[in-house]
Every structure is written in C-alpha cells, then in structure tokens.
Amino acid sequence: MNQHTRFNLPICLAVEEDAFFHSDEIIRRYIPDMIGQKTIVVSEEFLIGIYREKITDISRDFGNAEIVAMKSASFDEAVAIAKKVCIEDIKVIIGIGGGRVLDTAKYAAHISKAVYICMPTSLSNDSLASPFSVLETVGAARKTISCKIPTAIIVDTNMIINAPEGQTLSGIGDTIAKHTALYDWKLSAAKTGTQVDDFAYALSRMSYDSVYHCDEKNMKSRVFIRILSRALVMGGLAMEIAGSSRPCSGSEHLFAHAIEEYYPDIKISHGMGVALGTIPACIFQGQSIDGLLGFFSTYGLDINPQSYGISEEMFADMWLKARTVRTGRITILDEIKHDRVQLNEIYARMVEGK
Ligand SMILES: [Zn+2]
After folding, report:
1. pTM recorded for the entire structure
2. More exposed terminus of the chain, fewer Cβ within 10 Å: N or C?
C-alpha cells in the first residue's frame, strides 16, 4: 500500500473548557453530516451516575441518543454493541469515559463501521487516539487489538481538571515513557536493518518534549491539561502513522506488562507502571536519569516501588519476565545481561528517589 494513504487522522480535535456542554456544536462545525444521524452514547454505570447531567445533556443534543451502560471492557461486549449498531442502523457512537469505555466503544465502532466520537472523562493513557483497543478476551486475559482511530476527539478541560489526580498522573507517565520507547525503536530498527518512520518519530518526540519541557508545573491548570491532551493524542497519531505501537512503547512498557500479567495483585495504573519502567530502562540504555527524576518529583509522580508493594525480589523478577512478555519486540533488554546486583542498586535508587 502507498505510504501516504495507509493512515487516517481524526477530523476533529477540540480541547475546550466545558466542551461537553456544546459537543453538538463542535461536531456541527467539523462534520455537519453527522448531526441528525442515529447515535448511541456508550458509557459505564458508575460514570453515568457521576456525570448524569452532562451525559443526559449530550444524549439530548444528539437527538435523544440512547445511553448504553457497557457491562465489561471485553471483546464480547464490543461485539454486542457493534451488533446493536448494525441491526438498528446506528451511524454514530459516542464514547464517554476512561480507557475502558473508550477502548470498547472504539472497537465497536471499528467493526460496525460507525463514526466514533471519543469524549474522555480522564487522561490516563494514550489509547485516546491510538489505533489499538485493549480488551478482555477470555477471563481476565487482555489483548491489544488494532482498530480504526476516532473520527473526532472532544476534550473538556474542566472535566479533566476535576478527574481523580491519579488518572492525570498516569497520563503523564504514559507520555514520559516515549523517551525510552523511542530509543528502543531506533535500536530495533538498527538491529533489523529497517527504518523508523521519521514523521511518527518526530510526533512522538514532540509529544514527550511538550510535557517534559512544559513551563506550567501545575498539573491541575487548564494550560497543562491542554498540553497533556494534545501530547496524548499526538502519541496515538504517531502509532497510527508508524502502523505499530513502537513510537510509544518500549522496554518500559514491557516492564508494565510484566506487572500486569504476572503480578495482577499489584495495583498500579498503566501510566505509573510505565513511569516506574522508564528509570531502569534509561539506565540500561546508558542515558542519564537526573532529568526524569527531577520531572517526576516536580509533578508528584511517586516512583518508589515500595509505594506499590513491589519488593526488591519482585522488581528483579518483573525485569526478568519483561524480556519474554512480548516476544519478537527488540528492545535494550535484548542487549543487556540480567544483572541482579545492578537491579538491586537501581531499586535502592528509586526507593530514595535519586
Ligand atoms: Zn502506554
């Protein structure tokens, strides 16, 4: 396929104060054809409880769109929603929620070929605009499945400012992970004699830079939320352009996947898991960690493994498992020996935060 036609970009990226109160006007501005089309709103029971007024308002603005409370963030649920969409001639799916809702609604839209409007209630990771959905498959097992990116993304800055702080911290962590992910991507390209996609690389680098070098140190400010929203969306687009998650996911993500798959009792958000992974990944890559440590402390990202119940023993085992959790993905972990003494030293540094 032609390099220049293999990807899609969203038609609309609106990051505005109180955007959820005039989402219909925003859509009318960008995709007027969608107004008046049969629409459903997909969310979750507890979110519909918390944001009843806003969600009802959005439903009314889109022709009294039916509000569907999804039961799980699973492949089966996405298929069930897609089935409803096809049978009832629904043309537009609006997803309102966090990662679980957005991934399920995105995949339902992908299989039913409906237009997908993504309206996040928190900024916890870059799946917002990515061409992937993480869905439960059998039992608690989850799989990352490729799909079409959203047609429109509407971020309400007021909504995000009021979201739980942990969600925003997770979004910051997922953005900072691009630093080590990009190193690993280049390394993999050099090893396999392939080429990184320069444009995807630049987008992901800019996404990282915009947050890492941000002058606004208050993560609850409108300015910061706007920068973070765009950074997460740019990360998603970098993946779409590259046709893989490599611009945003390297050894630090393998570490987070190892926690998820082998230590399901450890309660840590995706973004914080990868943030924890960036420090050792940086050291393995021979990069300085001083800047990152300073950044994490400025925004209050706690990278002490003990805070999450991760012992020195578990930490070393997680890095051992990280080597095999996604086979076929070349990272710095393929270049270094598993060194228990070094891992214990890194663990101690992370506990002390320096
Ligand atoms: Zn991620």
Report:
1. 0.94
2. N
Compute, in angstroms, the gap from residue 228 CA to the centroid of ligand 1.
14
* 272-299 tens-digit pLDDT: 999 999 999 999 999 999 999 999 999 9
Distance 312 CA to ligand 1 centre (A): 24
Based on the fold, state whether residues 197 and 298 are members of the same structural domain.
yes
Residue 7 resides in a domain: no
Summarised one tens digit per residue, pLDDT across range 104-143 is: 999 999 999 999 999 999 999 998 899 999 999 987 778 8
Supply the range of the domain harboring residue 153.
12-163
Ligand 1 center from residue 250 Cα (angstroms): 9
- Looking at the fold, whether 186 and 138 belong to one and the same domain comes out as no
128 part of a folded domain? yes
CA of 270 to the centre of ligand 1 (A): 7
What pLDDT sits at residue 6? 79
Residues 198 and 345 in one domain: yes
The separation between CA 193 and the C-alpha centre of its own chain, rounded to angstroms, equals 29
Residue ending a domain, among 137, 163, 189, is 163
**pLDDT tens across 181-210, in order?**
999 999 999 999 999 999 999 999 999 999
Considering its fold, how many domains does the chain have in total?
A: 2
CATH number for the domain harbouring residue 47: 3.40.50.1970
Residue 344, classified by CB atoms within 10 Å of its CB into exposed (0-12), middle (13-18) or buried (19+), is middle
Q: How buried is 56 (Cβ within 10 angstroms: 0-12 exposed, 13-18 middle, 19+ buried)?
A: middle
C-beta of residue 44 within 8 angstroms of C-beta of residue 101? yes
d(CA 214, CA 72): 36
Output the CA 51–ligand 1 centroid distance in Å: 26
